[in-house]
C-alpha cells in the first residue's frame, strides 16, 4: 500500500490585514484501504494542524504523535523562508502520521485530509451530530470535486 501526501502552494489569506494567515494545499494520493477517497486536495491552515495533532494525541494512547514545526513569532529571515520551512515541517508531520496504523484509524484525520469541513464540523461529524457520517462527508467532497474545481478557477 502506498500513500503520498504533499503539502504545497502556501497562500497568504487576507494579506495586509491584522488577521492574515497562510493556508496550504494538502494533496493526498493513495491505494490504501484505510482511505475512503483515493485522491483528495484540501486547504488547511497551521492552527488546524495544531488541532489535529492534539486530537491524535488524545486518541493515540501511548503511541507518539509526530511534532509540528514550531510557531515562531520571532523568526530571523524572510517571511518566504519561514513559510517554506513550515510547509516542509507540515509535510513531514503528515508523512509520519499516515504511516502510523494507530493514527490512521482516527476519523478526524480522514476528515482533515479528505473534506473541507471546518474543525467544529469535523468534531460534530465524528460525534455523530453532523448531517453526514464520516464516509458520507468524504465521499460528498470527493464527488463534488471541490478541491480540483477550486484550484482551476483560482488560476489566472
From TrEMBL:
PANTHER family: PX DOMAIN-CONTAINING PROTEIN (PTHR46209), SORTING NEXIN-11 (PTHR46209:SF1). It is found in: Cytoplasm; Endomembrane system; Endosome. The keyword Signal does not apply. This is SNX11 protein. It comes from Probosciger aterrimus (Palm cockatoo). The keyword Hydrolase does not apply. One of its GO terms (molecular function) is phosphatidylinositol phosphate binding. Keywords: Cytoplasm, Endosome, Lipid-binding, Membrane, Protein transport, Transport. It holds the Pfam family PX. Belongs to the sorting nexin family. Residues 2-119 form the PX domain. One of its GO terms (biological process) is vesicle organization. One of its GO terms (cellular component) is endosome. The gene is Snx11. It comes from the Eukaryota. SUPFAM superfamilies: PX domain. InterPro entries: PX_dom, PX_dom_sf, SNX10/11.
Amino acid at each position: 500500500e502506498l500513500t503520498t501526501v504533499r503539502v504545497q502552494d502556501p497562500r497568504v489569506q487576507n494579506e495586509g490585514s491584522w488577521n492574515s494567515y497562510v493556508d496550504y494545499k494538502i494533496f493526498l494520493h493513495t491505494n490504501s484501504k484505510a482511505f475512503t477517497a483515493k485522491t483528495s486536495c484540501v486547504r488547511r491552515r497551521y492552527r488546524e494542524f495544531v488541532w489535529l495533532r492534539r486530537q491524535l494525541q488524545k486518541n493515540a494512547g501511548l503511541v507518539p504523535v509526530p511534532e509540528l514545526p514550531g510557531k515562531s513569532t520571532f523568526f530571523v529571515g524572510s517571511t518566504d523562508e519561514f513559510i517554506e520551512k513550515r510547509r516542509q515541517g507540515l509535510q513531514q508531520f503528515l508523512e509520519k502520521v499516515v504511516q502510523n496504523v494507530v493514527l490512521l484509524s482516527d476519523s478526524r484525520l480522514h476528515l482533515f485530509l479528505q473534506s473541507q469541513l471546518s474543525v467544529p464540523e469535523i468534531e460534530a461529524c465524528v460525534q455523530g451530530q453532523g448531517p453526514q457520517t464520516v464516509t458520507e462527508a468524504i465521499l460528498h467532497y470527493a464527488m463534488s470535486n471541490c478541491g480540483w474545481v477550486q484550484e482551476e478557477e483560482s488560476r489566472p
